[in-house]
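From the methods appendix. Each design record in this collection lists the tokenized structure first, followed by the designed amino acid sequence. Records were kept in a plain field format so they could be parsed without special tools. The example shown here is representative of the layout used throughout.

RECORD:
FOLD TOKENS (517 positions):
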């Protein structure tokens, strides 16, 4: 919701002009009423008029002077002596910075729980009906094709309480069920293969094993030919072929639910080769605040147990060149969103009731987006990838576990946000920020970690970026924090707020952003 603030530079001159006009009108009416006596006192009306105008002008100047003393200067609410001593570009005090951050959060980042709740309810109802219809149409006796399990898993920032600005983008995992009696054999590529692109070191291969006593050329040939690729005599489940089948299957099933949903909302599907299926929803709601166009990304997922899922690789990773022995379509990404939600729930229990750790993450997202508006290409495109929401969230996890928990109380918002910025700056300069779950032995014991994650090779999330890019990102990050008051004021002006909102990440396709948001 847009918040309007009073512009004193316009308000006080208008008040002065209005009062002057009223005084002139009063003097004109009075002189006209006392016209017979005007000869005896020709200058009786001019003196009060001049006195009134002079008093109003002096009052206006006094108010402008007081406004400049209290908060109109570049240095915020500090006295002029302090401003001149620290220079015009000196950072504001902790209290002033926190006040500005709180204002920025409330006016531009904070989501209304009412609007977010209605948006999630719309998404759950519509996706639920679509998934049930797709499951029903896929249940064919003797069919050796994947089928929908019938449920869906809500992931991303909208369900982790750190989404910013508008509830217009959602991520939904749609679990698939493979033909019965098939077994999966997973292997993480890690760093064991020479020449492997850094973006692919967290990728998995998914080899299929036929049931005991079954031969591939007989009963499983249709599935093998339609959904697998053969490498070195073994059959691997293809993420590209599964994704293509899922898109076609959901598109065919959409017509079965459109007539039931046409009174509730307008629905359309956007399917591009190699990209996840996106469901666009425009509710026909009686609530004006909930009349928001939403983009829901439907992600086909292969369940592995322990709330782990295989998904197709992200767009950023798909641009990398794999090793010659591993075609790109044979690689999968591992989704650990449920483990992250459990970790966030445990952190919520450990931190104070008024903890600011999620607000710090939201504010850092907001500052990143504001700073990205003024960066030149091609670094502007790299900025959002280096500081993706997944990387920011991973840095927050690592910093939180350093403790103490009481240091994250709301009153220390500015200090904790500065700690997060400095910690992330150090990670960028060292070129190392490890994946929080893959091969990490420091995960709290209270958060159960599946065996597959414990035995996986550690993955550096920053390995995909070169040293000059990380150095420039570290410099810009620290500069963004030092110039945060100036950047917030600049992009909070009506000239920028009137611009159309940022496109949904499902449309702009920011790569790693979709892993967490």
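DESIGN:
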């Amino acid at each position: 919701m847009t918040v309007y603030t009073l512009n004193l530079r316009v308000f006080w001159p208008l008040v002065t002009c209005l009062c002057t006009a009223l005084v002139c009108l009063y003097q004109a009416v009075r002189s006209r009423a006392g016209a017979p006596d005007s000869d005896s006192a020709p200058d009786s009306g001019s003196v009060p008029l001049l006195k009134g105008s002079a008093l109003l002008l002096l009052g206006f100047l006094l108010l402008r002077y007081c406004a400049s003393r209290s908060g109109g200067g570049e240095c915020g609410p500090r006295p002029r002596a302090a401003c001149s001593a620290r220079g015009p570009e000196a950072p504001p005090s902790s209290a002033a910075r926190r006040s500005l951050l709180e204002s920025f959060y409330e006016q531009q980042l904070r989501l209304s729980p009412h609007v977010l709740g209605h948006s999630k309810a719309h998404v759950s109802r519509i996706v639920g009906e679509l998934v049930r219809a797709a499951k029903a149409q896929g249940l064919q006796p003797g069919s050796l094709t994947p089928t929908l399990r019938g449920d869906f898993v809500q992931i991303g920032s909208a369900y982790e309480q750190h989404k910013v600005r508008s509830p217009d983008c959602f991520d939904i995992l749609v679990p698939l069920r493979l033909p019965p009696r098939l077994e999966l054999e997973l292997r993480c590529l890690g760093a064991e293969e020479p020449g492997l692109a850094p973006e692919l070191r967290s990728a998995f291969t998914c080899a299929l094993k036929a049931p005991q006593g079954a031969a591939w050329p007989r009963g499983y040939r249709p599935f093998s030919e339609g959904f697998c690729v053969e490498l070195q005599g073994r059959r691997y489940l293809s993420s590209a072929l599964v994704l293509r089948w899922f898109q076609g299957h959901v598109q065919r099933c959409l017509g079965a639910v459109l007539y039931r949903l046409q009174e509730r909302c307008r629905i359309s599907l956007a399917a591009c080769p190699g990209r996840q299926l996106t469901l666009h929803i425009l509710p026909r709601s009686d609530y004006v605040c909930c009349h928001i166009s939403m983009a829901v990304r439907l992600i086909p997922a292969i369940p592995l147990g322990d709330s782990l899922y295989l998904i197709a690789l992200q767009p950023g990773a798909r641009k990398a060149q794999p090793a010659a022995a591993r075609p790109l379509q044979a690689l999968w990404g591992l989704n650990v969103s449920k483990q992250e939600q459990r970790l966030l729930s445990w952190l919520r229990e450990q931190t104070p009731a008024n903890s600011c750790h999620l607000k710090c993450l939201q504010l850092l997202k907001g500052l990143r987006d504001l700073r990205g508006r003024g960066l030149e290409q091609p670094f502007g495109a790299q900025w959002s990838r280096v500081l993706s929401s997944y990387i920011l969230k991973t840095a927050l996890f690592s910093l939180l576990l350093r403790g103490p928990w009481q240091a994250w109380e709301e009153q220390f918002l500015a200090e904790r946000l500065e700690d997060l910025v400095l910690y992330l700056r150090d990670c960028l300069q060292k070129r190392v920020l490890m994946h929080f779950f893959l091969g990490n032995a420091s995960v709290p014991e209270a958060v159960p970690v599946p065996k597959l994650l414990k035995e996986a090779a550690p993955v550096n999330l920053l390995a995909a970026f070169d040293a000059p890019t990380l150095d420039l990102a570290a410099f810009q990050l620290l500069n963004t924090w030092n110039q945060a008051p100036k950047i917030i004021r600049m992009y909070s002006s009506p000239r920028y707020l009137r611009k159309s909102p940022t496109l949904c990440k499902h449309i702009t396709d920011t790569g790693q952003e979709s892993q967490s948001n």
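APPENDIX NOTE: The chain has a mean pLDDT of 79.
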